[in-house]
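Problem: given the chain below (259 residues), write out its structure.
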Amino acid sequence: MAQIIPSLELKWGFPYMSPNGTEPSPYVYQINLDHEVGPGILFHDCLVKIANAHKDHQKGSIYSCYGSWIGAGVVWLMYPMNEADEREKALSDEQVLCEVLGEEEGKQTIEAFRSTLISDERKLLKYLPLASNPSSQKEETPMEYIYYAIVELNEKSGTAEYQELVSKAIQAHNQHGQGLKWVAYAEEGTDSRKVHLFVPMRKFGDMDPWQGLGEILNVFGSEEAKTIRDSLLAGVEDYKSYLMTFVPSCDNSGCEFVE
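Solution.
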């Protein structure tokens, strides 16, 4: 992996807004890029050009880039935001490319990039402090890995009693020696009950000592742990998880990268 050197203009170490802050971003604009395996090199080269253009443009966007650790063709671009409408005010990739590279090369690059895509899904995510357990440690660079889970909840999750169970789970993680730190986001502007959970990690091996929810909840005793676990799972309709790995060459989070 590339060596990460913080620059003077460091803006973001996921999931935090700055190297001197520990509060998660109030909003994250997430773009999921599903691309064809065949033209993968072209996809990567275009994504590098786009990132470099944003670095060189005075009004370029700040974002981090992650790819799927296992499986082909999924890349996530993560834009931290203070306000929900910040992306609406931002320049498009095509505008940035054309202004940095010239209109002809800029349009050719964006057309080549689009030709590699199967789909392009965009989500506005809003921070959920009551469902999060963020670390108080200051992060000066993006995290090398993120365990990413999308949890679809049902109507049972919409009660004050269920929120109390979530609070109990957070308390258990803080009391347990192997408890985790994470941030949670909801999909803004939709009727979706999906919650996006991000567990940032420095090393792949950080997952080795992870314990299951039942084990973590055992800090309350086995009987109460089972009750809390079963009640929490009763509110879950579906669950998907991914392991995201940082892609520095396609990133514009405000760091310099040296191979």
